[in-house]
Amino acid sequence: MRGKIVAGNWKMNKNLAETEALLTELSAKLPDTTAEVMVAPTFVNLVAAKHSLESSTIEVIAQNMHFAESGAYTGEISADMLLNIGVDTVIIGHSERRAYFGETDEILEKKVKAALAKNMRVMFCFGEELADRKSENHFNVVESQIKNALFSLDASAWSKIVLAYEPVWAIGTGETASAEQAQEMHAFIRKTITDGFDAAIANKVSILYGGSVKPGNASEIFSKPDVDGGLIGGAALVADDFAAIIKAI
Ligand code: PEP
């Protein structure tokens, strides 16, 4: 059985006091669930988030990391720095990192390998742009994003990988892929992993959907057999909404 996961990507939102307040509220409202629940606040608030969630099952994860061990990389954060504060899961490849910070497949492959070398868990994000879908090139784009960053991994690495399919046209736009579109792509992703590795690995990897998941559409999206949870942006910043999405899983 693969695990269900609901993760909140807070992006560049919430200062220290707001982080503590949101986590206190979320902890109080957290529904009973067997799914893993994760939140990714900004780097500067990770330590505070860990403290706030000391007696909670909610995990604190990072939004990004650099591939180098240490050194002259002004403004960057290493895997060891995250591990040192008890953060052992990192989001890599978010479309905003690709679009605004020039993160190519090649860079992302390095980041994935650097995180895995430290035994961290990686939530690897990918997804097509609107033009790709309109030109019916979305399967090719997704396949190449996965192949370029993940196909050079050892088979054993897959126990540490979670995938997040996030069509760029659905992120922060209020437009969601239909549950059928999500299922169709998730099944394709699983087949891609089967072809590159094997069915056992493909059937074990959790594949999350991300892109304007809200309390009103979460149940339908999560009901699909190849959708193992969600990566949530905007709705993760509101405790009631995030709690409702967790309930939906
Ligand atoms: C995201 O950025 O990962 C995301 C899914 O955002 P939103 O839910 O706001 O579309």
Task: Walk me through what this model shows.
Strands 3-2-1-8-7-6-5-4 form an 8-stranded parallel sheet. Strand 2, helix 2 and strand 3 form a beta-alpha-beta unit. Helix 1 crosses helix 11 and helix 5 crosses helix 7. The radius of gyration is 17 Å and the shape is globular. With 249 residues, the chain is α/β, with parallel strands linked by helices. The chain is built from 11 helices and 8 strands. The protein binds phosphoenolpyruvate. Phosphoenolpyruvate binds next to strand 8.
Give the SSE layout:
Blueprint: E1 5-9, H1 16-29, E2 36-40, H2 46-52, E3 59-60, H3 79-84, E4 89-92, H4 95-100, H5 105-117, E5 121-126, H6 130-134, H7 138-150, E6 161-165, H8 179-196, H9 199-204, E7 207-210, H10 215-222, E8 229-232, H11 239-248
Helix pairs in contact: 1-11, 5-7, 7-8, 10-11
For the structure shown, list the relevant keywords.
8-stranded parallel β-sheet; alpha/beta; 11 helices; 249 residues; binds phosphoenolpyruvate; 8 strands
Strand content: 5-15%
In angstroms, what separates the terminal alpha carbons?
15 Å
Number of strands: 8
Bound molecules: phosphoenolpyruvate
Cα shape: globular
Sum this structure up briefly.
Helices cover 43% and strands 14% of the residues. The chain contains eleven helices and eight strands. It has helices spanning 16-29, 46-52, 79-84, 95-100, 105-117, 130-134, 138-150, 179-196, 199-204, 215-222, 239-248, and strands at 5-9, 36-40, 59-60, 89-92, 121-126, 161-165, 207-210, 229-232.
